[in-house]
Amino acid sequence: MTDNEIIKLIIEGKKEYFRILVERYQKKIFTTLVGFLHNTEDANDLTQDVFIKAFQSLRSFRGDAQFSTWIYRITINAAINKTRKSGIFKYFRQYELEHEHDKSDADENPESVLIKKENRKLIRKALNRLPDKQKTAFILSKYNELSQKEIAAIMHTSESAVESLIHRAKVNLQQNLHLFNKKVKT
Fold first, then answer.
1. Is the pLDDT of residue 13 over 60?
2. What pTM was computed for the model?
3. Which end of the chain has fewer CB atoms within 10 angstroms, the N or the C?
4. How many Cβ atoms from other residues are within 10 Å of residue 106's Cβ?
5. What's the rounded Cα separation, in Å, for the pair 72 and 179?
6. Is 126 in contact with 177 (CB distance < 8 Å)?
7. Cα 133 from Cα 37, distance rounded (Å)
8. In percent, how much of the chain has pLDDT > 90?
C-alpha cells in the first residue's frame, strides 16, 4: 500500500491505518530529532508530538509532495522550535550523562574513552552553532542519508542550494572544530 492510499483510508475514517505510517517513518523521524536535540528522551517525546501533529493535520496534506517530505517538514519545524525554546546547552549535558558509559567504550583504555567523549561533545557543539538551514541540510544528509533531491523537497529549495548548504555546513563545522580545539589547547 502506498502512503497516499493509506492516507485516503485514514481520511475516510479508518484511523487504525495511521499505525502503518508511524511504523514506516518512526525510526527516520526519531533519528532526525536526535540529530537536532542530542537527547533520546526528548527525541522520543518529540517524535510522538510530530505524529500527533501529522495525524491532526492529515486532511491538509494535499499530496503535492510525498508524505515523507511533508512529515519531515513537520519534524524539522518541531526540532527547530524545540531547540530555540529549550536552550540547547541543556541537551549537551543530558546527552553526555546518558552516554557516559557507552558499551563501545567498555574495552578501551580510559584515555581513549575520554578523547572520544570530548570529540563527540565538540562535534555536537559545532553542529549546534550552524545556521538552521545548514544544520537541517547536514542532518538530513548525514544522519538520515537522504539525497539532495529529497532534502530540496523537504526544505522547499533547489538541489544546488542544498549542495551549497551542505558544503557550507562542512566548512563551518571544520572552522568551529578548529576554534574549539584551539581553545582547549590554550
1. yes
2. 0.67
3. C
4. 8
5. 32
6. yes
7. 15
8. 48
119 vs 161, which has greater pLDDT? 161
C-alpha cell at 121: 561533545
The average pLDDT across 82-110 equals: 54
Q: 72 lies in a domain?
A: yes
More confidently predicted of 70 and 106: 70
Q: How far apart are CA 72 and CA 78, in angstroms?
A: 10
Domain around 24: 1-87
Q: What contacts 142, CB < 8 A, 6 or more positions away?
A: 35
One domain for residues 113 and 180:
yes
**Residues 75, 32: contact at Cβ < 8 Å?**
yes
Whether 151 maps to a domain, the answer reads yes
Is residue 182 domain-shared with residue 138, that is, in the same domain?
yes
Pure H helices in 38-147? 40-57, 67-86, 88-98, 110-128, 132-142
Helix, strand and coil content of the chain, in percent to the nearest 5, comes to 80, 0, 20
Name the percent of the chain lying above pLDDT 70. Answer: 83
**Alpha carbons 74 and 171: distance in angstroms, whole number:** 27
